[in-house]
Amino acid sequence: MRSRLRQSPSPASDSMRQVMFGIHHNALAYAMTTLGAGMMNSIFSFYYVKLFLNKYKISEGAFHQSQVVYMIWNAVNDPLFGYIQDNSRVPCFSKRRLSILYGAPFYALTFLLAWFPWRSYEAGDWLSGVHLIVTLCAFDGMLTFVLLAQCALFAEISTHHENRLTLIKYNQVASLIGSSSVLFCGLVSENMENFGYFQSFTVVVAVLACTCMLYTGFHSLSPYDCLGSKGTGEEGQGDEAALSLSSVFCMTKQILTQKDFMIFVTMNFFQVFLLAFCNNFTMIFAEHLIPQNVLPSFVKSIMYGAGFICPQLLVLSSQNLLRTLGYYRVILFTFYVEAGAAVVMFILGPQHYYILALFLTGNMVLIQASFSLFNLPLADIIDADLYKHKRSTPLSSMVFGTNALFTKPAQSLAPMVVVSILNQVGYEKLEDIATVSDQGSLQELHDVMFYLVCLVPVCVAALQILAWTPYSIRESHTVDAKYIET
Q1: CA dist., res. 184 & res. 179, Å (int)
Q2: Residue 238: other Cβ atoms inside 10 A
């Protein structure tokens, strides 16, 4: 995309130039929300499926019902909150900093909902299904409210590619620290075997995460916060029109008619599916496919932790590649690597336990690392929309929210599909691997798990390559500034 010259608000020049002792204070403030959210989201996504399936003994029907409700809410709340944050004249909605400040305590509280049962559940208890619905909807609602505001900050703090790479760098360091919560949680609770310790650890995480996000709420700067209420429509469009229903459809249509946006959304849907697949089931697959005498629980805890920590190290080490090649080529390359590694693993077979452990960990790392770069194409799409429709302020939250409308359902679709497949071969009836008498049925379950481990990444990566190849904003890394910041 060619360079565009457009005047942006004067505070933009300060937002990424406040450096003291080598620290960009606004980048640090931005990244503190990533630190807090990373601590909670990593634990939640990694443990909640196993908790409700294995400990709370939720029925397959109740699990699917919960995921369907979650899928609908997950898709609707992102564009809803996005429109509210971009168009509301209430400061706690319109100002990104205040959205994070007021949303952080509720975000932390909803994180704790899953880990404390409402009573002693029996197998198939209806209340465990209600518990899961409330947990998923409440947690995702607050996650969306807070992280949409943070995503909008990413696009609005600066339009310079170099400054955005700085934000990515700070973000990945924060994510590196935050995602280590899975490692320490596994070590403290023996991979949730000691549930009391697990519950205590989650309370500590919630308090620390809330504190981190409050720091963002008090100290982050967005140039558009200084403009007062957000009139995001075409020039000359009044506040009343901006809040009308027809305006919602008009702006959504303008976003959806961007070819690059739809290409990105299609690719991102498959990425979210694959990420949910890895986060929710890696622990279950590892426990079944890798014997305890090969990798003890302590080593597996380190393995799971590495799956969340190493992606940030990979992104931090790829800064020069992003500067020289750009995110488009880096993301495309990861798809080829994912597919190739899965094919090799399938050929080798499940009996190579150490290679399988390395593959499971490496797959998590590569998928999460590439996903961490997705703010870069979305920020470029926001810039293109801002210029094309001559807006006074960018529709940052609406673009992120509309993206989520189409991609978030994959978070529910992945566990629904996988649980259905596993239950077809007896997973629901399985109490303990060590006490299973029918070894033939157990071997069939393990074969299906191995096929899922290998074939899902191959198929998804192939679809992503087809979807991502036509994307046209490939050279933004070569443009010093798309807009003049004064």
Answers
A1: 10
A2: 11
pLDDT tens string 373-392: 888 898 888 888 888 887 77
| Region at 19 (left for phi over 0; alpha for psi -120 to 50; beta for the rest) | beta
- Kindly state the tokens that stand for 224: 């558009």
**For the residues of 53-68, what is the DSSP string, one character each?**
IIIS---HHHHHHHHH
Structure tokens given for 198: 């697990």
How far apart are alpha carbons 39 and 181 in whole angstroms? 5
CB-based contact 407:272 (threshold 8 Å): yes
Q: How far apart are the first and last CA of the chain?
A: 22
Six-digit token pair at 348?
């080798």
CA distance 396 to 375: 11
Q: Of 159, 164, 171, give the one whose Cα is nearest residue 394.
A: 159
- Residue among 89, 372, 400, 33 nearest 220 (CA): 33
pLDDT given at position 321: 87
Beta strands in 312-402 (DSSP E): none
More confident residue, 210 or 8: 210
> What's the pLDDT score for residue 10?
43
Compute the distance between CA of residue 384 and CA of residue 378 in angstroms, rounded to an integer. 10
pLDDT above 90 (res 19): no
- Decide if pLDDT at 318 tops 70: yes
DSSP conformation class of 391: B
CB 40 within 8 A of CB 205: yes
**pLDDT score of 250:** 83
The dihedral sign for the CA sequence 226, 231, 236, 240: negative
The number of helices, as runs of H, and strands, as runs of E, in the chain is 20, 4
Question: Residue 163 — φ and ψ, nearest 5°?
Answer: -65, -35
Cα distance between residue 250 and residue 192, in whole Å: 48
Beta strands in 174-275 (DSSP E): none
Q: How far apart are CA 191 and CA 187, in angstroms?
A: 7
Q: What are phi and psi of 243, to 5 degrees?
A: -95, 5
What is the average per-residue pLDDT within 136-140? 94
Q: Going by DSSP bridges, is the β-strand pair 7-8/23-24 parallel, antiparallel, or unpaired?
A: unpaired
Rounded mean pLDDT, 425-452: 77
Q: With beta carbons less than 8 A apart as the criterion, state whether 45 and 255 touch.
A: no
Classify residue 64 by burial, with Cβ atoms within 10 Å: 0-12, 13-18, 19+. middle
Supply 91's token pair.
Answer: 């400061």
CB 139 within 8 A of CB 114: yes
